[in-house]
Fold this sequence. Notes:
Layout: E1 2-3, H1 10-32, H2 41-52, H3 57-76, H4 78-101, H5 111-131, H6 140-150, H7 154-172, H8 174-177, H9 180-201, E2 206-213, H10 216-227, E3 232-237, E4 244-253, H11 257-267, E5 272-277, E6 283-284, H12 288-291
Antiparallel strand pairs: 1-6, 2-4, 2-5, 3-4
Amino acid sequence: MRKTLKKLSFTKRYLMITMGIALMVGGFYYFIMPAALVIGGVSGVGVLFSELFPIRVSYVVFILNVLLLGLGWLFLGFKSFARSVYGSLLFPVILFLLEEFSPQLKMEHSYLLYTTFGGFFLGLGFGYVIKYGGTSGGTDIPIKILHRLLKLPLSVSIYLVDGVIILSGVIAFYADRGVSMGLYAILTMVISGRVADYVVVGSNTLKAVHIITDKPREMKQLIYDTLERGVSLVPIRGGYTLQDRTMVLSVITRDEYYTIRNVIAEVDPDAFVFASPATEIQGDFTTHWEDD
Length: 292
C-alpha cells in the first residue's frame, strides 16, 4: 500500500482546527469546570477568577486572549498574531455558547474521572489543532515571549507559565482543598500532553535504524534477504577522522528489531548503530499484515 503526501485544502484545515478547539472546549466545560480544577493556560486562569469573583469563565478567557493577542503582535509580530487569532477567539465563543445553553456534568467527588476525561479531551482537541497547523492561543503567546526575550527553552517557559497558574490555584483554595486540586491539575496536564502527542505523531511502532558500517553492500543484501526491507545507502564523513563511510538506513517494525540486530552482528559487529522512532511514514512501506 502506498501513501502519498497531499496538500490540505484551506477548508479542511480549518474544519479540523475548529473540531480540535471544540473538543478542547468540551473537555474543559464538561469535566474541568465542574471540578473547579485550575489547570494551566488561560482556561485555568478563567476557572480561578470565576471561583473568586462572580464572572463567567468565557468572559475571562476572552478578555485575556484579546490582551495576549495584543502582546503577541507587539513582541512576536503580525504573523504570530494572525496565526493565533482564530483559536484565541473561537475557544471563548464556543465556551460561552456551552455556558449559555448546556448543563455541566455532575459527578460528586469523582475527581479522578474529571481529571482523566478532561485531560483526554483537552489533549485530543489540542493534538488536532497542532497537527493541522493551528494554535489555541492563550498562554502559547507569553510562553513564546519568554522564550524569545529571556532565551529560555520552550519546555522551561511552559513549565514556568503553567506552574505559576496551577500554584496560584493551590494557594487561593488551600484552606478548602489543600494541595489535592493542584495534583489533580498536574495529572490533567500530563494526560493531555500524552494524548496530544499520540494524535500528532500517532501510535506507530516503526523504527528507523541507522547503521554506520564498512560493509554496506553485505549489510544491505542480508537485510533484504532476511527481512525483505528496502534500505538507503547514505554517504557520510566522520567528524573526527574525516573518513568517508556509508550509513545504511532502513525502516522496520518494532518486532523486527531483534532480527536486524542479529543481522548487524553477523555482518559487522563493529558497526555503529542507533534507532529512532519513525512516527510519520509516507511512500512505499508495507507491513506484513498488509501482505496477508
